[in-house]
UniProtKB/TrEMBL annotation, chains A, B:
This is Maleylacetoacetate isomerase. It comes from Bradyrhizobium lablabi. InterPro entries: Glutathione-S-Trfase_C-like, Glutathione-S-Trfase_C_sf, Glutathione_S-Trfase, Glutathione_S-Trfase_N, GST_Zeta, GST_Zeta_C, GST_Zeta_N, Thioredoxin-like_sf. Keywords: Isomerase. Gene3D superfamilies: 1.20.1050.10, Glutaredoxin. One of its GO terms (biological process) is L-phenylalanine catabolic process. GO terms for molecular function: glutathione transferase activity; maleylacetoacetate isomerase activity. Belongs to the GST superfamily. Zeta family. It holds the Pfam family GST_N_3. Signal peptide: none annotated. Residues 86-210 form the GST C-terminal domain. GO terms for cellular component: cytoplasm.
Amino acid sequence: MRLHGYFRSSASYRVRIALNLKGLGAEHLPHHLRKGEQCAPSYLAINPQGLVPTLENDTGAILTQSLAIIEWLDETHPEPPLLPKDPLRRAKVRAFAMALACDTHPVQNLKVLARLRQLGLPEEQVTGWAAWANREGLAACETLIAEEPGPLCFGADPTIADLCLVPQLANARRFGVDLAAFPRLLKAEAAAKTLKAFADAAPERQSDAE
Amino acid sequence: MRLHGYFRSSASYRVRIALNLKGLGAEHLPHHLRKGEQCAPSYLAINPQGLVPTLENDTGAILTQSLAIIEWLDETHPEPPLLPKDPLRRAKVRAFAMALACDTHPVQNLKVLARLRQLGLPEEQVTGWAAWANREGLAACETLIAEEPGPLCFGADPTIADLCLVPQLANARRFGVDLAAFPRLLKAEAAAKTLKAFADAAPERQSDAE
């Protein structure tokens, strides 16, 4: 398989963790987002949104959208599972993941921040916007798992909730968010980071890291 | 079941369509988003994001995030299915849905537009922002199903792709987006709107419609 990504893209980071947890190797093809490489016609031909990641599977099929890729990995390579078996627990895990993947990350991604700059907002307000989006999403997530014993988001095994949380916390730090208000999220992150699958997927461990 | 929603919320609209397709009745509990009712402490206690929809199922369990709710409905009430059986087709359908539910709708929702106003952007730029987000997402979606014969997004039966598309097109119109560039999406919308499940879920058919 081939994974088109970028070391700092949190959506790519999610898929890297999933591939590692499943023990699946993939060739990593970096696209430098700050240089606009995701807008090259050859890339848009496989991902019309001009976003990373994109996964090419072993038959050459193209998969886009990180959570759709991860659900596909989980359906085609069931062990270890990235979602619980019980439908209600699955819904809770997916809702946590989507609070980050739908309502948080897309509001603070490179494209949105570039648009804010185009509208004339000064850099301080652009960073403030990104920090705000992270705080809002993380605060809701802290509440969503307040009653979950852990140590990970939903129990002892990693789920797609952890796959979304760890990259989002990296973003939040980059935008200067004070994470002290989120002790339960930090507990999950600390537990996740002891796992090799998470450690190996970290941005600073990728070949295109700066 | 009880569905907390708002007539014009496109995420609520998705879940209303899903419930109708599954033939499931639900009590509809409207929360007036423009009056800020989603920020009442009693609502935040069940949905810490302060977003609609929230589904309370028959055992009183709380489900949030429209796509997580819809996946749960599909897992617990499998007929008619809202996702294809083949894993690769499922990934394509989910990716289309998420291009709208992750990268489009959250960038133009009420909360984000309110934040833009707080930053001092004039109303014209705020509407322009919402139109931009819709155009970007819909243009990608048009390409994603360009080779799909239809008439719906992915074949003859409704999937979560259609559940996301129809409400998003309603938003796009509200923000003045010219939809003529998206003939394939309009074809899918026209086919979907002939179905009673979609028609009954339309914003103007809800008890809280203005």
